[in-house]
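Chapter review: from sequence to fold.
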Amino acid sequence: MLGAALGSFLNVCITRMPAGDSVLRPRSRCPACRATIRWRDNLPVLSWIFLRAKCRDCGGRIPVRYPAIELATALGWAGMAWLYGTSVAALTGAVLFTLLLAIAVIDARHYIIPDALSLGGCAAGLALSALPGSTPPLAAVAGAVLGFGLLHVVGWLGEKAFRKPALGGGDVKMMAMVGAFLGPGGALLTIFLGALAGSLVYGPVSLRTGKPVPFGTFLALGAAISFLFGDTLFDEYLRAAAAEPLSALPRSLAPAC
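The token string follows.
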């Protein structure tokens, strides 16, 4: 229920943050008629089902993304608890997943990443690093610096090569957040996976339509994969390269989970 309730609030953030509106006031409203939603009509997932996806006041359709985000957030929090139990790792993963979900949806719809999510998320990642069982503080700081700096350099080089902005500032700040949660290794893996997924999945669409790639959406996917499978991917890579096992590396070089 906690995850679903947070998902309901996440819908508010996704709807209001791109417009610069407060996420606290006023209360939730119908996107069509702007009528204030009653508490009984604001139960995560259930109200959408009971109301048959329609506003009680105007009958306007309630987009399916609202219950989808609520359900996804609930499953994300439940999944972290199932994987890591009642631990700091579970809390860290759940917070990161929530931030990534909001960023992915907002960037896909509006091509922006609000500072409240990227910089606020970076602060949250650094704060969580102080807890035992999370990414060590030095690794969190190094990851934030590396994620921000590396993507900033990539964007600068792309702008020089193509004579137009190659990356948005939101993507760069987002990688500071990712690095704070995952450390240097996780930041590197996230950039690689995000670039790969963006090129394969959205690259052809971008070439055909001229629309830019919502890179933050694919960085979010890469960060989620890095958190869940980063150690395994590093192990497989090193094994394939006939290198030392991951356990022999300094822990700060591998993504922390």
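Two observations follow directly from the output. The radius of gyration is 19 Å. The helical segments are 2-16, 46-50, 65-84, 88-110, 115-128, 137-162, 169-209, 215-240.
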